[in-house]
Amino acid sequence: MLQERLIREIPELKIHGRTTACLEPLTLFWTASGFECNISGTELSVEVEVTYDTYEPWFSYTVNGDWVGRQMLPKGRYWIPLFRGMSAETIKNVQLYKDLQAMSDDGHSFIHIHALRYDGRFYPVAKKALKLEFIGDSITSGEGLFGAKQEQDWIPMFFSALRNYSYLTAKALDAEYRIFSQSGWGVHSSWDNHIKSAIPHYYKEICSLIPGAENRQIGGTIPYDFGSWQPDYVIVNLGTNDAGAFEQPGWLDEETGKWHKMHKNPDGSYADADICVFKNAVKDFLGILRQCNPKAQIIWCYGMLGIPLQMPICESLSEYAVQTGDRKVTYLQLPDTDDINVGSREHPGPLCHQQAAEVLAKYIKRLNMDK
After folding, report:
1. What is the pLDDT of residues 26-57, one digit of tens each?
2. How many whole angstroms separate alpha carbon 224 and alpha carbon 241?
C-alpha cells in the first residue's frame, strides 16, 4: 500500500549539497545537490515543485549506483516516479541529483522537494569514507557534458552532474561530495572582467549569488554553517575565466563609475600589475578556505581548458604557504581538452572529465596514504 511522507519526516534520508535547515520543503541550490535513500518496496516517487524565469532545471537519478533517469523539469508541483515494479524485499539505494547549477541571473530558479511516495520502508544510508568539496566554474558545473560537439547554445540540457569529474572522483574514492560552482566566474573576476562575479565573494553564505527576495526569504543568503559539514579535501578548479578576462573588453561598474580590465602588454604577455591583482585574489581565497575548513587538504586544480595562468597560480600557492605556514595546500595539473575529448560549447567532454577524475582520484589516494 502506498504511503506519503514529507521529507522532514524521513530521518533515514541523506541530504546532499549546501541547503538551509528547512526541510519543508528541501530546496536544491547547487549542482549535484539532492538526496539519497536506502529503501525497500516496489516503487518510489518524489514530489517536486519547480520555479524559474528563463531556463528550466534538469535532474538525474541513480538506482543502486546505475544512472537510470535524466529529465527536464517544467514549472509546477507534481510527482515523478523514480522506480516501479522492483522486488519488494530488496533494499535499493536511490540518489537524486540536480544537474543545473545555481542560477546567478534568475531569482526564481529553484527545485523544492516536498515528499516521497512509496510502499516499502527506509533504512539508514552508510557513511562514506571521505568528504570532498569542489569549487569551480563551468567545468565544475558540468557545462558541455551533453550535446554534439558543434552545439553552442547555452542551455541547461547540456549540463550534467553525473558525467562530471567531481562525481566520477567521488565515486572512485567512495566519497560524499558537494559542488560550489558558477559558469563564467573566476577568483578575481568573470571572463568579461566583472569583478562582482567572483566565487570568493559568495563562499561564506549558503547560496547568496542567486538574486532577489525569494532567495532571501528561503534562506539562501544566510551564513553557511561550515561546522555542519567539514570536507577532508577542498578541490578548487578556478583560473580559466580569469585568464579569459585578459582577452576581453573592460567592465563598467555602474554603481561606482569605475572600469575594470585585466591587461596584456604589447608583446602579448600579462601586465605585472594585473597578475599581482590575480595572485592576491588567489591568496585571499586560500585564507577564506582555510578559515572555513581548518583541517582540510586544499588542492588547486587547473588545466582542463589550458594553463595560461598556471605559473601565477603556483606562485600564489607557494607564497601563501610561506606567509602562513600552511602546508596543506597543493597544486595539481589536470588533463587538457583536445579534439578527441572535447564536448559541446568547446568545453571538456565526458572523456576529458573521466581523465581528470582518474588523475585527481589517484592524487587524493596518494595524499591519504601519506597522512
Report:
1. 999 999 999 999 999 999 999 999 999 999 99
2. 25
* Cα–Cα distance, 183 to 345 (Å, whole number): 12
Neighbouring C-beta atoms of residue 90, cutoff 10 Å: 12
Cα–Cα distance measured from residue 269 to residue 282, given in angstroms and rounded to the nearest whole number: 20
Cβ proximity of 218 and 20 under 8 Å: yes
The cell for 318 is 607557494
Q: Are 131 and 177 in contact (CB under 8 A)?
A: yes
Q: Are strands 92-98 and 130-136 parallel, antiparallel or unpaired?
A: unpaired
Q: Which three cell numbers stand for residue 305?
A: 581548458
Name residue 36's beta-bridge partners: 14, 95
Q: Is 344 within 8 Å of 337 (Cβ atoms)?
A: no
Give the single-character DSSP code of 41: S
Contact between 112 and 48 (Cβ < 8 Å) = yes
Give the integer Cα–Cα distance in Å for 48 and 27: 10
In eight-state DSSP terms, residue 288 is: H
Nearest to 82 by CA among 160, 71, 1, 146: 71
Residue 330 contacts residue 317 (beta carbons within 8 Å): yes
CB atoms < 10 A from the CB of 334, how many? 24
Q: Could you check whether the bond before residue 308 is cis, i.e. omega within 30 degrees of 0?
A: no
Burial of 10 (0-12, 13-18, 19+ CB in 10 A): middle
Residue 58 identity (one-letter amino acid): W
Contact 278, 288 (CB under 8 A): no
* pLDDT digits 0-9 by tens, 157-174: 999 999 999 999 999 999
What is the value of pTM for the model shown?
A: 0.98
